Amino acid sequence: MVSLAQAEPADLPPRRPAITVRNLAKSYRSKGRGNVNALAPITFSMTEGEFVCLVGPSGCGKSTLLKILAGILQPSAGEFHIHPQGGAVANCQIGLVFQSPVLLPWRTVLENTLLPADALELERPAMRQRAMQLLDMVGLKGFESSYPSELSGGMQQRCSITRALLHDPPILLMDEPFGALDAMTRDTMNTELQRIRLQSGKTIFLITHSISEAVFLADRILVMSARPGRIVDEIVPDLPDRSSLDVMSTPEFGAAVHRIRRQLGIDVRDRPNVD
């Protein structure tokens, strides 16, 4: 694995660990195919406030890894740690955002945002106030009483993000959150997520098929091979400015995209439009 990570400046304290993964692997028993290795042993770590994207081909184990970190699946080997931050209790350490918003159609935007408060038995008046602030932050002020069917796809995903942020988790795990959106809406949501990240200071681990999305969003990009997935490269994009999509036209952006394509075996001469 090639790492371009730079050391912290000497006059700044080291950032605290957020996620540590050591030799984590996952295999399944499959009818007619025996043991299937979905995830090869992988090792990586994240620090508090870091934004890391995991990019790789379909079926390489990206979602499997995220589900293990979320506690949905158990690993077959290895270990991982979600490090306590800010005094949060264990079940408040992470927020989850999936590709589908998974909003309850009979609940309004505000009521969907408040779902974690109900599940975690949090003080509802305080959570309602926080929900209103979050909806304002993501541009959904005025839609609190709307139902999911009355929202666009991008607006539904914004609601999903506010729901994940409601209990103020230090870590967000995001599984292709914008994969089902059209290209223009996806660009808008990428800039929104960048803004939300800067305002909230959250640690974010996002998996994606989109190379350009990973380069625009991430402090660091982990590139995975085909199944069984293993980390084959680690890239720290040296971008001049992430506040605008204009950065995508810079040489630094193009160099990072080209390196990831090369690692994934994508021939840019034959497939110039691959994202």
Summarize the entry for a quick read.
The protein has helices spanning 62-69, 109-113, 115-119, 124-137, 153-165, 183-200, 211-217, 251-263, and strands spanning 17-30, 34-47, 51-55, 77-82, 94-97, 171-175, 203-208, 220-224, 231-235.
Structure description:
The strands form two sheets. The chain has a six-stranded mixed β-sheet with strand order 5-6-7-3-8-9, sandwiched between helices. Strands 2-1-4 form a three-stranded antiparallel β-sheet, with helices on one face. It has two domains: 17-93 and 169-263, Rossmann fold (3-Layer(aba) Sandwich); 104-162, no CATH class. Strand 1 and strand 2 (34-47) form a beta hairpin. Helix content is 30%, strand content 23%. It is built from eight helices and nine strands. The model is unreliable at 1-10 and 270-274 (pLDDT under 50). The chain is globular. It has 275 residues and is α/β, with parallel strands linked by helices.
